[in-house]
From TrEMBL:
Gene3D superfamilies named in the record: Rhodopsin 7-helix transmembrane proteins
Full protein name: Olfactory receptor
Transmembrane segments: 15-34, 54-76, 96-114, 156-182, 194-217, 229-249
Species of origin: Bucorvus abyssinicus
Gene symbol of the encoding locus: Or14a16_3
Superkingdom assignment: Eukaryota
Length: 258
């Protein structure tokens, strides 16, 4: 849906360029985990090859890290557009937009390479059954018998989560500034639209970051298969499914194009 409107005649607009990237990320993210889980359910199997598991983890981390980066960039784009409109063309020219999108994808790739290489270098001696519907770092770490490798990957996860929380705080501050600017406007016409876009975005990114952080850093003592399943669905399935509703179906130009 987002691709349709972005390619229509607004591709030169930075916001639509970022939404085009977000649509690819969401499509890739949900396609990495859900189709395999559905196929396993239909054929009544729980098998995945070792190489397939590594590829699934690699792609999942790419899309998670890149999506966090891109959502942060989108909040910055909206902040500049509403709070500093006269500087918009200078700060967010076509070259700057391409560089920021490329940085988001590169960040995802580097994080994925780091996590996958480190996780699959660990010796696995606790069986080969994951209590999850896709290959996830915490579930693979449960099968490891290397204490030093486990602590190394845990340290990388802590750093990754810290960076994600910094991105989340930047997003929150950006939207708070946007809402303050909207409330100061003399006309009340744009307020409902601003609230209708900003608040759902904040809610989704809050769900994404909080559930992902808890899933990856929760103590093993409070872990359970049902809790792990719910958490992974909340951060890996819900945000990619809800993002099009927030960014597309509320868009008048998209409705006109349809």
């Amino acid at each position: 849906i987002i691709i349709t409107i972005a390619c229509h005649h607004h591709l030169h607009t930075p916001m639509y360029f970022f939404l085009l990237n977000l649509s690819f990320l969401d499509l890739g993210f949900i396609s990495t985990t859900v189709p395999k889980a559905m196929a396993n359910s239909l054929w009544d199997t729980r098998h995945i090859s070792y190489a397939g598991c590594a590829a699934q983890l690699f792609l999942t981390v790419i899309f998670i890290a890149a999506e966090v980066s891109l959502l942060t960039i989108i909040s910055y784009d909206r902040y500049i557009a509403i709070c500093k409109p006269l500087h918009y063309g200078t700060l967010l020219g076509s070259r700057a937009c391409v560089h920021m999108a490329a940085a988001a994808w590169a960040t995802g790739f580097l994080y994925a390479l780091l996590h996958t290489a480190n996780t699959f270098s660990l010796p696995l001696c606790q069986g080969n059954a994951l209590d999850q519907f896709f290959c996830e770092v915490p579930q693979i770490l449960k099968l490891s018998c290397s204490q030093s490798g486990y602590l190394r990957e845990l340290g990388i996860l802590v750093v990754s989560v810290f960076v994600d929380l910094c991105c989340f705080m930047f997003t929150v501050v950006s939207y708070v500034q946007i809402l303050r600017a909207v409330l100061r406007m003399p006309s009340e016409q744009g307020r409902p639209k601003a609230f209708a876009t900003c608040l759902p975005h904040l809610a989704v990114i809050s769900l994404f970051i909080s559930t992902g952080t808890f899933a990856y850093l929760k103590p093993p003592s409070i872990s359970s298969p049902s809790m792990d399943l719910v958490l992974s669905v909340l951060y890996s399935v819900v945000p990619p499914a809800v993002n099009p509703l927030i960014y597309s179906l509320r868009n008048k130009e998209l409705k006109d194009a349809l």
